[in-house]
Every structure is written in C-alpha cells, then in structure tokens.
Amino acid sequence: MSTYANEFRRSIDQPEAFWAEQARRIPWFTPPSTILEYDEANHARWFVDGEMNISHAALDHHVEQGRGDQPAILWDSPVTDSKRTLTYREMRDQVASFAGALKGLGVEKGDRVVIYMPMVPEALVAMYACARLGAVHSVVFGGFAPHELAVRIEDAAPKVVVAASCGVEVNKVLPYKPIIDAAIEQSAHKPDACVVFQREQHLAELGPRDHDWATLLDAATPADCVPVKGSDPLYVLYTSGTTGKPKGVVRDTGGYAVALAYSMDAIYDVEPGEVFFSASDVGWVVGHSYIVYAPLLRGCTSVVYEGKPVKTPDAGAFWRLISEYRVKSFFTAPTAFRAIKKEDPDGKLLAEYDISCLKALFLAGERLDPPTFHWLDDLLDVPVIDHWWQTETGWPIAANLHGLEPMPTKAGSATVPVPGFNVQILDREGEQVGPMEQGSVVIKQPMPPGCLVGVWGDPQRFHAAYMAAFPGYYLTGDGGYFDEDGYLFIMGRTDDVINVAGHRLSTGEMEEVVGAHPAVAECAVIGIHDALKGQLPVGLVIPKDGFEGREADLEQELVALVREKIGPIACLKQVLVVDRLPKTRSGKILRKLLRNIADGKEYGVPSTIDDPASLQDVHDAMKAREVGAAHEARQV
Ligand code: COA
Ligand code: AMP
C-alpha cells in the first residue's frame, strides 16, 4: 500500500488512534484523555477534556522554544506603501497587552468579540487576543455593507467590536467607522464598546462608546492565556447559506489546532522557520486557517498581504512577494491568477524575480479550471495543487498530499480525500454511485477534527443544513464524482451558493434584497459563468402590475440596493426586467434552466414547465442585453 493509502485507511478505520497521534503535534496544558466523543445529536466532538490555548500554542510556546526573534508576521501593504515585521516575541507581547485591554473592557471566556478589520497585523493581534482570553471572535470581511455587519452583530451578540478606522483598496480609502456605527444602529444587540485602530490614511472620529486602540494598549496589563477545553469554541465565522441569513460556523479549539498542524505537514509540507504565504483575507476561512493560525502553530513565518494580485502595482505582485520573503509554499484563489493572466498572458513579469524558493503552489476557493491550471503548470517549475474545502471544514477535504506522498496531478481534479475525510458520492436516494458517476459529495461521519461543531445559536439549522439530507453523512453542498483512479472532481454547488472571485455568496440572499423593493413582484438571481471571477450574479425581475417607472431606472436601483445591503463584493452589476419567468406548474422558478441559457448551453423545455413561451422571452432578453453567453444558447 502507498504511504497515502496506508495513512488514509488508518485515519478511517482507527480514527481515535490516528488523531491521538496527531494531537501530540501541539502543546496542551492537559493532554486529552478522551479523543473522540459523540454529542446527543450524534455529531463528533474531538479532544473534549484536553486543555490548551491556541494563543499559547502558536505564540508563547514558540518563544519558550527559542523562536522569539524569528519573524512571525511579515506585513506587506503596497496600498499604503508600508512594510512591517513582527517577531514571535513582539507578537506575543502585543497579543498579551491587547488581551489585557479587552479584559479591561469586561471581555471574559465565552464572550464574543466582532472584528471588522482589513489586512493589518492588528487584525491578527485582535484574533489571538480573544483566543488568549477564551473569548470567541467573529471576523467580518471588510467588503460587507452595514446591513451584513448588523446581521452578524445581532446574531453573535458581541460584548466588544474591534475595528480599524479604514480599509484601503486600490486607489481608495474606505472609512470603516460609519459602517460600524450604522451596523450597531441597525442591530438590536448593542455592544458595550468599540475599539478603533486608527490608521493614518483616515482617522475616525470617536464617540462615547469608542476607545482608541493605541491608548488602550499603552495602559493595558498583559493578560495570561486562559486554559480552554479542546471542544470550547475559538471562533464563529459567518458564511452564505441558501437563505438570506448567513450561517455562523462554530469552530472548536483543540480539534482545529490539531487538524491545522497536521495539514501544514501532510499537505503544505512546511517546516518550522519556513515562510508560508496565503493571499486571502482574514475575513475568510482561508485567512483564519492559513494566514492567522496554521503558519504560527507550525512555527513558520506568515506573510500578511494588503494588496491585490494586479494593480498593486502590477501583475508581478505575487512573484515579488514570493521572491522578497523567500516563500516556500504559496496559496491563493484561481481567480487571482486569471486576473494576472489577463494582464500578463505570457507571464513575462515572472522573469524579473527569483522564485527558486517556491516549492509548491496551492489553489482553492473555487475549482481550478483546467485552462488556468495549464497556464500555471507551463509557467512554473513547481507542483500546482488544486485542493477543495469549505468554511465549514476549516481545512482541505481533498488535496494532493504534497508533504505525505505527492501524486501525479489531473487537471480539474482536487486529487484525493485528505486522511480523516471519508468522502463518498451519493445519488438522490442516498445510494453510493460508482466511478465517473456524478452525485452529491458527502462526508461519512465522523468528520475529522477541525470541522464545524455547530451553527451559532441554532443547533436545528446545523442538523437541517448539513446532516438531515443523508443520515450519517455531512452534506457538502457540492456535486462531483470519483474517476476510475480514485481522483475526486468537484463540479460545483448543488444549491444557491455561488462563488464570485473566490468569495462565497448566496443568490437567495440577493433575491431577498431585490424582492423587498416595492416595485418588484417576482425575481430570480442566478450565478452565471464569468471568465475572470468564475461566476457573477445576474438578476431577473418582474415588476408589479401598474409599475410606471422606467425599467432602466429600476434596474439601476436594484443594483445599487444590493451593493448597499450586501456590499460591493456582491458584484451584482446586471438586472434585467422581464415579463415572465420560466416556472414549473407548482410555481418553482427554473433557475438551472436560466443558468444554462445565460451560459450559452443547449437547453430543453422541461415537461413540468407552466408557460413554455416564458423561456423564449428570457432568452431574448438575455441575448439583447448580452448577458453571459446567452447569444450562443440553443433550444433543443
Ligand atoms: N473591503 C472593502 N471593499 C472591498 C474589499 C474589502 N476588503 N474587497 C473588495 N472590495 C470591493 C472592491 O473595491 C470592489 O468595489 P468596486 O465595485 O467599488 O470596484 C468590489 O468589492 C469587488 O472587488 P473584487 O472582487 O476584489 O474585484 P476586482 O475587480 O477589484 O478584482 C480580483 C478582481 C480577481 C483581482 C479580486 O477579486 C481578487 O483579488 N480576488 C481574489 C480573492 C481571494 O483571494 N479570495 C480568497 C478566497 S481563498
Ligand atoms: P468557502 O466556504 O467560501 O470556502 O466556499 C466553499 C465552496 O467553494 C465549496 O463548497 C466549493 O463549492 C467551492 N470550492 C472551494 N474550493 C474548491 C476547489 N478546489 N474545487 C472546487 N470547488 C471549490
């Protein structure tokens, strides 16, 4: 048996023995004696009686082991023309002081703290400071609008909000304070305090509830690490589901730390002292796992990048960072490379940098499309690895296990299930299907350590969203298949979640916003193929009877409304007014059909359709307005 096959089998056949071994990778205050336990709903709980603190494991422990002077963070911000290095010792001291500051504001173990910050070192300091106190952080991505932030504040009910005064995007400064004030205004829950890290690009005006980060830090008494149980929550991270209300994915502490430590070895193949660069954002799961926690748990140096793949200043930005910081392992989303390829199709800028330090490139967030894979594979001398995961799992479900046993790559495949993940493909009836047959991709219980342990404040939703469809299995929401060699191909979501530039969004949520406009009778928002961003949302609306305004004005209002309510990253740029929408006789909008038309695919008329002429209407409207590749769609 190959090394991979052997390790995978062991992880599935003897999960307790396998993960007990992996648990030794991290420093515990009290090592767990119970490895795996099931809760009353029969969901796996790992390391419940172990005691640890991730801030200790990732910072204090390394300082104690002699890594105090090694850079923990290399911050590089072309948008503000700044760079900064924080050693492990500096990081530990800042975290301890900020934890002391939070404690002074009344934050205790189990309290929630919402963090709304861009890619600055202080975002990581704030996250680790919460962890140090055993408080639960919930980081909200800066591209979300006040309404989205309000929904999260209301759900998480934080004692404190920690924010920066502004974010900086390409050529624009975005003040955050008005967004936070508006969100707190909209939320029924009001935090006691808001701590603002002032950036020189824009100073926020502070009100009665607000505290200045620097002043608090100066006055703070450093706080020690509070021991927490392996199963205690470390964070809540909201992600899009199929309804308008985002799901607060709850992550435990011990299982997560063990899984991340294992992945840094088996998947990413990085050793303590080496440099890891993940070009994501702390607001996403990739940022939580592979900018903030995993690199430091492993004793690596993490590059924290406040910039874009292109335009800051050019499409050579990633090559520059890899070369300058001697990055060994680099991780980003395929969309970033599609943007680079667009600006520098022959990869000429690469020649300006020595990237001989790079040993592997990892991509996730969406499927690595074969053209982008081949472009990268031709350009680089290192393995180009597509790996598949989700906010819920916290770490990769399928990958080429570069550190354990590298395998030949197949374009379009995320390679094989990672040890611990018993991935299966089921048909509608819940029967396992054979190779090359598509179905629902599920994970047989128990899920390995590191995966979500619940939906914040809503155990029922956890069960309904993930566990109810196929008892005994976790529903990933993705469709796909295994080939004859056991390679896994993930082909896209089976629900209303879409992926726009590696950002996960819900069309259902956009429909709620569009449908709430007083002039809209009915609407559908669908995700259509986009060459750069992977997918883009497009809205189709039927105005209410008696609507007398200009259609173009309504369309623009709806675009603006989604931007205002969800945020600029929703990227809803096209809304079309139509007379009819294709529906089944029971009134269900035929969204898949709409997607096929927009993507220029052949489409048939389903026997269940209520009004076949509605299809032609929509087709004509999309064609006239040049939506996607609708001009190529053909009815068969
Ligand atoms: N805060 C505030 N606004 C933000 C933001 C943030 N953190 N991130 C993006 N936005 C805004 C942008 O300014 C833009 O606003 P605009 O409509 O006013 O121009 C909008 O959201 C869309 O941004 P973006 O998706 O970044 O599109 P783009 O066309 O500017 O850039 C890419 C395209 C491909 C370069 C960019 O999407 C990218 O870097 N993608 C990689 C994403 C990624 O790493 N995801 C991680 C998942 S692993
Ligand atoms: P998120 O929770 O934002 O990480 O998004 C998770 C979703 O992104 C998954 O359910 C997939 O639909 C998609 N995804 C992420 N990585 C990949 C990948 N490597 N291949 C295919 N789809 C992916």
TrEMBL record:
EC number assigned by the record: 6.2.1.17
GO MF entry, a single one: propionate-CoA ligase activity
InterPro entries attached to this UniProt entry: ACAS_N, AMP-bd_C, AMP-bd_C_sf, AMP-binding_CS, AMP-dep_synth/lig_dom, ANL_N_sf
Domain AMP-binding enzyme C-terminal: from-to ranges: 509-588
Ranges of residues in domain Acetyl-coenzyme A synthetase N-terminal: 4-57
CC annotations in GO: intracellular organelle lumen
One Pfam family linked to the record: AMP-binding_C
Top-level taxonomic group: Bacteria
Keywords: Ligase
Start and end residues of each AMP-dependent synthetase/ligase domain: 62-446
Matches recorded under NCBIfam families: PRK00174.1 (NF001208)
Protein family: Belongs to the ATP-dependent AMP-binding enzyme family.
Protein's UniProt name: Propionyl-CoA synthetase
Species annotation: Halomonas campaniensis
